[in-house]
Amino acid sequence: MAELELSIVIPALNEERAVGTCVREALAAIAAAGVAGEVLVADNGSTDRTREIAASLGARVVPVAGKGYGRALRGGFAAARGRFLVMGDADGSYDFGQSPLYLSKLRQGCDLVMGNRFRGAIAPGAMPFLNRRLGTPALTAVMNLLFRTGIGDTNCGMRGLRKEAFERLGLKADGMEFATEMVVKASLMGMKVAEVPCGLRRDLRGRPPHLRRWRDGWRHLRFMLLFSPTGTFIAPGAVLTALGAAGLLGITLRDGFLPNAAAWLGSRHILTSLLLWLTGIGALSLGATAQEADYQERFDAGNSLHAFLRRTFSLERGLGLGAALILLGLLALAYFPLSYYGDVLPRGSDSLRLDLAVLAIAAVLTGVQCAFASFALGVFTLRVK
After folding, report:
1. What is the chain's alpha carbon radius of gyration, rounded to the nearest angstrom?
2. CB-hemisphere CA count at 13 Å for 351?
3. CA distance linking residue 214 with residue 236, whole number of Å
4. pLDDT tens, residue by residue, 151-161
5. Which residues of 41-74 are buried (b: 16+ CB within 10 A; e: fewer)?
6. Which of 260, 380, 256, 242 is nearest to 318 (CA)?
7. Which helix (DSSP H) or strand (DSSP E) does residue 160 occupy?
8. Read out DSSP for 291-328?
9. In angstroms, rounded to a whole number, what is the distance separating the alpha carbons of residues 15 and 24?
10. Helix (H) or strand (E) holding 355
């Protein structure tokens, strides 16, 4: 089959009341733009007349097995014959007459073109208050914080992308989080992303939407957190580790050289510092493993942490560092019987002895964590089959 320039892909599940309007608008947009194109309805198992209506109006209907917004779009994109893809919901809320805006940006070299409903006209009642004022702005802010995408509407359902970009992205999500996966992976892979204004109308379906505000909002947020090791693990881990280190070393030095200074710092603070240190080290080790997992999924290869790990890490080095920390901690613990039962070493104050015990425990547990983290990273880097 000959390649077309544009495929307008419409995922649908029981949308007999609205799909006709969408198909007619999409076909009119293709005709008005004067391009070789098609309208493809990716049917997700409709039990009403969605398929029949779409086919009768000139759309190509592609049945997609299994439920889910992402599954339907993946099936539609894979079956599309166009070099450029435009997607939009089948409920009549998006105006497919705006498709040429997306096509123009794609022709200019963009890989992904996002619609921005806040820059377009949102009809009264088209977007629930919580979605408009809380959900979408919050998710957009989190995405821009974690991935620096620079977009203004992460949840807009009308988008354009190159067929080649879709194939490179390796999208896998079946549900609503597919929309987030697309933007996150495009950002991590350094694709060129642009935005265009997008209008939003009241839908025509006459029934509750498939979207579930809190469940699907969490699924979007969950995906972003899982695919941002730096924001989820490494940044908070670094902060906790730094705070723990400052407390451990500061209190120990105080008790060793200035025992009367900052009297408000007591044993509870050294133990709190130990907790912060161990929690931070655990988060950092999980972050390093998660970063490697991201790389194995064929994106985020340009991450600086990953590049550093690739240059410096080996299982043997990690095990060596872990063993050295464990040995250092055990030697520190040996101080206590040597100073208590003999006169080999000075006993020191009770506060200083507690500090040294805590530091020894921190070294041993950090060494153990380092060894286990090295084995976890080795699973990815050694690739033993």
Report:
1. 28
2. 21
3. 25
4. 999 999 999 99
5. bbbbbbeeebbebbeebebbbbebeeebbbbbbb
6. 380
7. strand 159-162
8. HHHHHHTT--TT-HHHHHHHHH--HHHHHHHHHHHHHH
9. 14
10. helix 350-382
Residue 4 pairs in a beta bridge with: 82
Domains of the chain: 4-226 (3.90.550.10), 229-382 (no CATH)
Neighbours of 270 (CB within 10 A): 21
CA distances 238 to 73, 88, 233, 234, 277, Å, are 39, 41, 8, 6, 9
Residue 309 CA to residue 234 CA, distance in Å, equals 13
**Tokens standing for 362?**
């921190």
Beta bridge partners of 193: 112
Per DSSP, helices labelled H in 15-128 are 19-33, 50-56, 69-79, 99-107
pLDDT digits (tens, 9 = 90+) for 310-367: 777 888 999 999 999 999 999 988 888 877 776 666 776 778 888 899 999 999 999 9
What's the confidence (pLDDT) of residue 385?
A: 39
* pLDDT above 90: residue 2: no
